[in-house]
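Reagents: none. Just compute today. Oxidoreductase.
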Amino acid sequence: MSTAPRSLAVVTGASSGIGLELAKLAAGKGYDVVIAANEPDIDIAADILRSIGVTVDAMQVDLSTRHGVADFYRFVADRQQPVDLLFANAGLGLGHAFLDQNLDAALHVVDTNVSGTISLIHRIGNDMRTRGSGRILITGSIAGFMPGSYQAVYNATKAFLNSFSLALREELTDRGVSVTCLMPGPTATRFFQRAGMLDTQIGQGAKDDPVEVAKVGFHAMMNDEGDVAVGLKNKLQSAVANVTPAGFLARQHAKMAAPGSSNT
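Predicted 3D structure written out:
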């Protein structure tokens, strides 16, 4: 007697932080999991998830390239299970003034956060729409509400994702596919270390727990919410940003993100 395949969740940027916590939540709900990241720690994450008792496949892949996205999509398709949940969480940050940044590094942020994200969503989202079911969670950020002085490229990519997710959600109304945007604030992950921002006010300041951030995002996704900011402070900050002149926001962000600002 044949049995129906188990439900499948796909999580990018899952080697640590919010992505790993989202994958744990999916596994805890009985979903088999396919995870990806561009670093070898993804195999350690896979072992953690397997201990929950679900089937886990992991791929180390650079999702900033269309070739990498295509390889990962084939990797997922090899499971021959429909993707019920897609957590588009892969992302990079980059600190310092834009003209002082290495251009290749800045473009890599754009390719990872924007191009790779929408390429994967286009592939898996089409499968979901054809099937008439599925849920997508996109990790945006409250950073997308303000011009990110000394973090200009990163904030701009998150502004793109915040907007893109709500537009896609509207396009998929009545098609059986939900889209949710998770908009965390500063979170206790390796983000600021990787972005070269440990000497900044924002890098040294208080941060949210990735476990709690993931819970908020997962709950919002499963309840078909359009977007969710994490924590009262971040909710207030995003609301204020919507009615505050952009120039003022840019100056305020500079105070938080300028190199050496943690010492002033």
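The longest strand covers residues 177-183.
Action item: order primers for follow-up constructs.
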